[in-house]
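ok new one. same drill as before - structure tokens go in, u give me an amino acid for every spot. 186 of them this time. try not to just spam alanines like last time pls lmao
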């Protein structure tokens, strides 16, 4: 989905731009994705699982995000660099179209500056302006206090927990937690 860029001022005074991804972002966005998954255990891949993920595949993904009526991806840009992305995807099936799912990831150097809050503000506005959407949903891995802090700030609550859903390389077993927000409660 294409949209007009929006601007926010971050906690450190810098300007944040939230804009659609562009084809010219492909190389940088690929580097962002590989780096971001290496900086936390709370995303679903390890960097070595990205070896076959090429610039061409990233380009196709960007094209899908731009052209899809059911996905809106916000690219967070600070000082001309990609700091992260956040995405909302709308279901289209009759039985599911009251639900939308959300994902977000930022590079570590940009955590805690308010980018997550800015993206969530825009995601919730987007969902509110789409007919029939009632539930916003996301998954978060046990122990991700920063993400859960962001989600609780925006009114999400825990609705399910799946034990042993995530197994880290060192054998640590973690729950996957489903959180949701009912839009009527805003
Ligand atoms: C999780 C993530 C998206 C949060 O974004 P962020 O820009 O760092 O979040 P913000 O700075 O907007 O903070 C949002 C709120 O979270 C809460 N918060 C921030 N840091 C926190 C912490 N360490 N522990 C608990 N809550 C915290 C606060 O309520 C904060 O709001 P406030 O600044 O108004 O008090 C980001 O840190 C990230 O990309 N992490 C790695 C990838 C990831 O975990 N993605 C989510 C997968 S489910």
């Amino acid at each position: 989905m294409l949209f007009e860029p929006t601007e926010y001022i971050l906690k450190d005074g810098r300007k944040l731009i939230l804009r659609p991804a562009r084809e010219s972002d492909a190389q940088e966005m690929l580097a962002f994705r590989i780096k971001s998954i290496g900086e936390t255990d709370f995303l679903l891949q390890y960097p070595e699982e990205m070896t076959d993920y090429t610039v061409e595949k990233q380009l196709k993904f960007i094209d899908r995000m731009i052209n899809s009526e059911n996905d809106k991806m916000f690219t967070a840009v600070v000082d001309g660099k990609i700091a992260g992305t956040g995405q909302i995807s709308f279901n289209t099936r009759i039985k599911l179209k009251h639900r939308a799912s959300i994902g977000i990831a930022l590079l570590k150097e940009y955590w805690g500056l308010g980018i997550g809050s800015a993206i969530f503000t825009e995601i919730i506005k987007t969902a509110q302006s789409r007919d029939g959407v009632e539930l916003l949903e996301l998954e978060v891995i046990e122990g991700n206090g920063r993400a859960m802090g962001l989600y609780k700030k925006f009114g999400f609550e825990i609705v399910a927990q799946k034990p042993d859903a995530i197994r880290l390389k060192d054998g640590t077993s973690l729950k996957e937690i489903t959180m949701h927000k009912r839009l009527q409660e805003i």
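DSSP finds four helices and eight strands in the chain. and btw The longest strand covers residues 157-167.
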